[in-house]
Design a protein that fits this description.
The protein is of the alpha+beta class. The chain contains six helices and twelve strands.
């Protein structure tokens, strides 16, 4: 950069002139968006899924309400998902990320002299934080993989799915409690499932979902920031969802089950909307051909997977 100086020795005095313009002063550049993290929230049990985020009980964390404001805009208003189906039973046990943008709002406009164009009174502004994107991470265990050709409403299978897919009697017995009766996934250490291209049917995995960015902020790298934040957090906290023998009471029974308890080993899954596949591919996810395609709230979905190293170091999402 070239440094420029002015020799003022020949000036006895110097008074800068007001800019001759009919435009108000230039706005400062908005700060970089920031991300808020929300740990699993037990108080979400009294969230009323039949009402919008604006009409919820006062003990619901504001950051979660901000997440729901984005999800309502994207999924309910844009895509036609029923409001009562947007919030589900996984929300209270999930981690959530919300990304905010600083928005400059004019409270009192500037006043200019109509003859000279000089600024008489500068405008008054206020900066507010606007939630513009969100993502959630659901820990294991999960319900069974969706059926190929299945039609799901509010998480429930409404048809029989693909009658051609072969399933052993053992697999059908394992799937039935989760798919038809709601299942006991939160009380089970393992959920036996049918093997897919990237999942053996038993390995614990975490599931990303509800990725939503407001329309006017898309194609600006917002989704990538959310995905990177979730992946990096999970890599750093890779044991956080692993069950503890002491919590389960095995130590009091004198049982050594350390080698038998499920452990997260870096596997992520998403149920991606078919039109968003290329977005997720940018972050390293791959389509699971054996999972086929199914419909959630009338929208076609496919399964995608990503495996990352865990422990020190870390994985960088492109």
């Amino acid at each position: 950069m070239t440094r420029v100086t002015m020799d003022t020795s020949s000036f006895s005095s110097f008074t800068p002139r007001e800019p001759q313009t009919d435009r108000p002063p230039r706005e400062p550049a908005p700060p970089t968006p920031f991300i808020s993290f929300i740990k699993p929230q037990g108080q979400l049990w009294n969230y009323n899924r039949h009402k919008t985020h604006e009409d919820q009980p006062g003990n619901i964390p504001k950051a979660f309400l901000d997440a729901m404001s984005v999800r309502e805009k994207v999924y309910v208003e844009e895509q036609g998902v029923a409001l009562e189906n947007e919030f589900d039973s996984d929300d209270h046990r999930s981690c959530h990320w919300v990304i905010y943008a600083s928005v400059l709002t004019t409270i009192i406009p500037a006043i200019l002299d109509p003859r000279s164009g000089r600024l008489v009174r500068p405008r008054v502004t206020r900066t507010t934080s606007l939630p513009i994107g969100t993502l959630r991470l659901v820990p294991f265990p999960h319900s069974a993989h969706p059926r190929n050709g299945g039609i799901y409403l509010n998480g429930l299978l409404t048809n029989v799915g693909d009658p051609v897919r072969p399933r052993s009697s053992e697999t059908v017995q394992a799937l039935q409690p989760q798919e038809i009766q709601g299942g006991n996934r939160r009380n089970s250490l393992y959920i036996r499932d049918f093997p897919t291209t990237f999942h053996n049917g038993q390995e614990p995995y975490v599931k990303l979902g509800r990725l939503a960015v407001l329309k006017e902020y898309r194609n600006k790298g917002i989704a990538g920031q959310l995905v990177r934040a979730a992946v990096t957090w999970m890599q750093t906290n890779y044991t956080i969802f692993n069950p503890s023998p002491s919590v389960l009471g095995f130590d009091r029974l004198g049982m050594d089950v350390t080698g038998q308890l499920p452990k997260w080993r870096g596997l992520f899954c998403i149920h991606a909307q078919e039109e968003a596949v290329k977005v997720w591919e940018r972050y390293g996810f791959k389509v699971d051909e054996k999972m086929g395609k199914w419909w959630e709230e009338g929208i076609p979905h496919v399964g995608m997977w990503l495996r990352v190293p865990v422990g020190k170091g870390g994985h960088t999402v492109a």
